[in-house]
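Next comes a single protein record:
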Amino acid sequence: MFNPVVIAIPLFAAAIALEAWWTGRNAIGPYNKKDAWNNILIGFVSVGFGFLFGLFIALIYETAYQMAPYKFPADAWWSWAMLFFVDDLAYYWFHRISHEVRLFWNFHVVHHSSEEYNLSVAVRQSWFSGLLHWIFYLPLMLMGFAPWMFVLMHGFNLIYQFWIHTKLIGRLGPFEWFLNTPSHHRVHHGVNEIYLDKNYAGVLIIWDRMFGTFVNETEEPRYGIIKPVESFNSVWINTHAWVEMWQAMRERRSLRSKLRCVFGPPGTVNGPLGT
């Protein structure tokens, strides 16, 4: 199945190199090469795991699609227009829940744990997110969108999100009203109190405006996570959140408290022990 993200990897590599060169040439600020190379390593391994999980996910999606009572025609422009909006809305809720529920945050924290903000951070993705993230897009197949249509559209959605991981591009005038931009996404990666859990958009920032999670960039963001991982070990970066959750569950006595460590907000792990 054609995946535009895989095809775009050489372009990602070229853009990362160009940004690093431009940053150094113009003395815009320090560029953490060690972090960037680590991000690239994590990204390549993530692609490998993605192929493995993809076989399983493709089977589920195809089964769901065959169950759909209606099939959207692939040769109709309005099918693709509808898919664009539905996919982007599904991404918004996938992304939001990945911040609000500890189980899903354990995957997504990999992306946010870098204390830098550049194009290499865009490819810093969890190795294991394929285990669960497919759940959020399953309804699209049940609605009648063919899996190959979804993979194509979602791939372009993710490609769009690559370029917004940069500090080199400022605000973009009227585009800021309806598109997710570098400015909006810098907010999302910021750990400033006013920026926490904001701007979840993929392509269209209108979802954040509609659901009350939008904030403008008003102060310089500080990047990373509340409890820094403080490591360049790619295995630890992908597993530390699971270790912390497991340790927190062992400290809880009641089943309810243990389940809150899994399905509650990320802060639950470091919160009161309960009973």
Notes: The chain is about 55% helix and 0% strand. The radius of gyration is 19 Å.
